[in-house]
Amino acid sequence: MSSPSIFLLGATGYLGSEFLILLAEAYPDYPINALVRNATEARKEKLERIHPNLKVTEGSLDDESIIREAAIKADIVINTASSDHWPSVKATLDGLETSSAKRPGNPPLYIHVSGCGIISDNARGQGPVSGKVWSDIGLDLKDCDQTNTHLPSDIPIVTAGTRKENPVRTIIIYPAQIYGVGRGIQRTTLWLRIFMDYAKTVGYAGTWGAGLNGQNTIHIRDMADICLFIFRKALVSEADEGADGLYFSSTETTITYGEWARKMGDHLYKKGLVKEPGAKPMPDEVVEPLGNYGWSLLGGNMLGRADRLTRMGWKPVYSDQIALLDDLPEAIDACAEDMGWTTAETQSADAPSLRYDGQNLYSER
């Protein structure tokens, strides 16, 4: 029996490349087609060194026809790229629907990595409004605040996984705040790059509002292991899918944004990279351009329990060995190195090297 084919989006990213390392160790014979933007020979070589049976398709998330055709040809699509890029998600779902019609009784599998922004309480930098901790067992996305991030993509995915005609086997993974220096191509997490960019711009570590909002945490190596764990279970039809295929991926440890922002500020100040230690709220002219997206994702509380994973027998390893605050200095140094940030010169006249198109936030690094 031939190995199932995989179409992977986000292979060069923080989580995607860490997950690819585990895929190579567990399933080196599985053919992988990786969508790669600006697919230089150097980028191709990096990916091919990680997984021996990988080929690269050049394209971005905006190349809907490329994504659609690749999804049609794949047995499994795994998306670790932008969770809010609806055109690429729609192209994926369209391709998988076509594939399902061609293989009745054997629908393709779609594993989509989203985020806990779906359960934000929009507290605008304050502590938990209700103190609610969400469980992923019995979770209905329609019960979430419909202004929250990720839902415009996630709800159609669940619909594809529950319909009778041309169904898709759908799984959505909801990581908590991922931390740690990765072993893959992108070493640092997007939230760290976001706040480092803003610190470089304003000259101090800043928060959305008071920074009293918090989130559960998960180490990058545990997060990649969760992806592999769910993937393994799905291969043998032992994973919950469709309406039940929603997985919070977190530990019970929580931390406020203000706590790690203060640690960031102190470390950056010690390194001579900012002019003030500690952390404080950033001014309106800095945070308001991101509007509700920023306040919901960066100023809200997102507290969820990984009850489904616990029931399935998954347990964290790295998250229990090193906490976010202990790991943060190393991650900050890695991020500063990647940014080429070597002095305390602020760039208040320049915008951070992030791009926001009204729906998605991208790092240009």
Commentary on this structure:
- The protein has 365 residues and is an alpha/beta fold.
- It has a domain at 6-177 and 219-249: NAD(P)-binding Rossmann-like Domain (Rossmann fold, 3-Layer(aba) Sandwich).
- The protein has helices at residues 14-26, 41-50, 64-73, 86-102, 151-162, 190-202, 220-235, 257-270, 284-287, 291-299, 307-312, 318-321, 324-339; strands at residues 6-9, 32-36, 54-58, 76-79, 109-113, 134-135, 169-175, 177-179, 205-207, 214-219, 246-249, 254-256, 279-281, 304-305, 354-356, 361-363.
- A 7-stranded parallel beta sheet has the order 3-2-1-4-5-7-11, with helices on both faces.
- Strand 1, helix 1 and strand 2 (32-36) form a beta-alpha-beta unit.
- It starts with 5 loop residues before the first strand and ends with a strand.
- Residues 348-353 and 355-359 have low confidence and may be disordered.
Q: From the alpha-carbon coordinates, what is the Rg to the nearest angstrom?
A: 20 Å
Roughly what percent helix? 25-40%
Structural class: alpha/beta
Give average pLDDT, whole number: 93
DSSP summary: helix tally: 13
Share of residues in strands: 15-25%
CATH architecture of the domain at 6-177 and 219-249: 3-Layer(aba) Sandwich
Give the spatial strand order of the biggest sheet.
3-2-1-4-5-7-11
Sequence stretches where pLDDT stays below 50 over 5 or more residues: 348-353, 355-359
CA-based shape:
globular
Q: Give the strand tally.
A: 16
Question: How far is it from the N-terminal to the C-terminal residue, by CA?
Answer: 41 Å
Q: Assign the CATH topology of the domain at 6-177 and 219-249.
A: Rossmann fold
Could you describe the largest sheet, including whether it forms a barrel?
7 strands, parallel
Helix and strand string, N-terminal first? EHEHEHEHEEHEEHEEHEEHEHHEHHHEE
CATH C-level of the domain at 6-177 and 219-249: Alpha Beta
